[in-house]
């Protein structure tokens, strides 16, 4: 267990991470590897052509730099075609992706990555460790979406590749965009300066109505069905506590300068109970316990017709703060005196800022970004939350990280079966607290 940190140590760390998230930490270090040849065109490859991948490519191509999309890869032809059409309608001059550089299938990433200086890794998160490892191996600058894995073996693979990326001075930006968002950065500066003292408790939320369902079609193999409905299967998604709620858990870790040493909680399938919803839960409520004894409550749920809530609140020894992705930040002391109220108008789009700063570094040949450590830590914090709710047990960080239980299929092919298969009624096994083996 880590020893409790004192206030000054926490302030020093937060100052450093605020600089890193803003892109100032490593700016004096020359860039190695890709895009060191002096060409004024930055070539990018899109690995994963779904909505978020198309959005990431849109943001990359919207930067002020001389960028061309030269390769695209996806498991499905129709997803690639749709993405290509959307991007071409907006960025025709920046699109240089002829048919021979449009790759489809499980191995498509192996063909696209070598063609680019910068790769955008935006497939469902189960594939992230594999794709990140390959991109680092091929010396590419990287943007990858959150979360970065779905199980402990995947996290270990990501952390190992991250160490290689640091040695090679490869910029890696991860799509936890709150780290690039003005209200969070400004708030962290004030917390770093001790405005509300030591953080002793908090509450983080992602409560919403859920996401899409794609009905099973005739003649689909089980692999294709699960790939099309990736959100409902843990080997692809990690459950919504991982895929979505990781944003809010990441803020808890950022504010606490570390990760939870243990997690306990509860969850279930209360609203999404049919066979269309795979294996994941629709609600999780957990407690994250940190090394200094602070406990942060985390809640996420997908119920239709509910009141939505996506935000974070924290209580320190001298005051409290409320934060949200809609640019709000309100800090008060316990007498009610307002210490800070962030101006929500005119703030930059953090999704765009991530790409602006990454491509600025690449264009200047500078090594600035190594986001993987905090992204992997927050991803694994969310994974442990799933372990806790599925098992009903208190899960300790070190024990969970050592787990060898992998969710990934033994073979990637359309005729291969995932590890989780439906019964004769089309229903999938659901984790039962008290019975499920998670680590």
TrEMBL record:
InterPro entries: Gfo/Idh/MocA-like_OxRdtase_N (IPR000683), Gfo/Idh/MocA_oxidrdct_glycsds (IPR050463), GFO_IDH_MocA-like_dom (IPR055170), NAD(P)-bd_dom_sf (IPR036291), TAT_signal (IPR006311), TAT_signal_bac_arc (IPR019546). It comes from the Bacteria. Residues 42-168 form the Gfo/Idh/MocA-like oxidoreductase N-terminal domain. GO terms for molecular function: nucleotide binding. Residues 189-321 form the GFO/IDH/MocA-like oxidoreductase domain. SUPFAM superfamilies: Glyceraldehyde-3-phosphate dehydrogenase-like, C-terminal domain, NAD(P)-binding Rossmann-fold domains. This is Twin-arginine translocation signal domain-containing protein. It comes from Pedobacter kyonggii.
